[in-house]
Amino acid sequence: MLEKEIKILEVDTSYVVEMLIEHGAEMTFDGDISDTYYDFLDRVEHKREEAQKIFRLRQKWDKSIYTVKNKKRELWEEEGVVVNEEYETIIADTRKFIKVLKKEGMIPIRKKQKHRMSFKLGNVAFDFDTYEGIPTFLEIEGPSGDVIHSWIRKLFLEGRERLVWGSRMIFDKYKVPYVYCD
């Protein structure tokens, strides 16, 4: 599945949530998320610089979700949003799954924790993410760049700074250290 999204920095969460509810959006999640990224030992240094493929194990409430993302950078400019091919699967036994990853030569390379509040309206998802030391930002995910940009206009967010890149750039912008595993 192709994931298309954009991040809008330093949003007024209360105002945007009110606007989303007025448009008929429904809250789908409000809680903490812990992400651990994995990679093959021989690719770790390369991945820290310029990852093309991402392997993530996410803890969301009582679920473990394993995600593989392939970046589709050739579409980023064309769509004006981040585009990734994404595959997710729910993991029944996290401990056993981590053992399998290790047996296949993968190691944890970085970790992130955030609070997320999510809304859904039709085929568009709105995630408010808050990391320690970083102002809350809004991620809008939709079926196309046009739909996403339409929602930016509907929510009166045209003047807000947008990020067409991953969360690592947000950490860099606010000078918050990205947590790498040893």
Can you describe this structure in just a few lines?
The chain has 182 residues and is α+β, with helices and mostly antiparallel strands.
How would you describe this structure in keywords?
alpha+beta; about 180 residues; about 30% helix; Hypothetical Protein Pfu-838710-001; eight-stranded antiparallel β-barrel; 10 strands
The CATH topology turns out to be Hypothetical Protein Pfu-838710-001
- Estimated radius of gyration: 17 Å
Instruction: State the helical fraction.
Output: 25-40%
Assembly status? single chain
CATH class: Mainly Beta
Count of individual helical segments: 6
DSSP strand tally: 10
Unreliable residue runs: none
Q: Looking at the structure, what is the overall shape?
A: globular
Alpha-carbon distance between the two ends: 32 Å
* Major sheet size, sense and barrel closure: 8 strands, antiparallel, barrel
Per CATH, which architecture?
A: Beta Barrel
Structural class: alpha+beta
Share of residues in strands: over 45%
- What is the spatial order of strands in the main beta sheet? 1-5-4-3-2-6-7-8
**What is the name of the CATH superfamily?**
Hypothetical Protein Pfu-838710-001
Mean pLDDT: 89
Q: Number of folding domains?
A: 1
H/E topology pattern:
EHEHEEHEHEEEHEHE
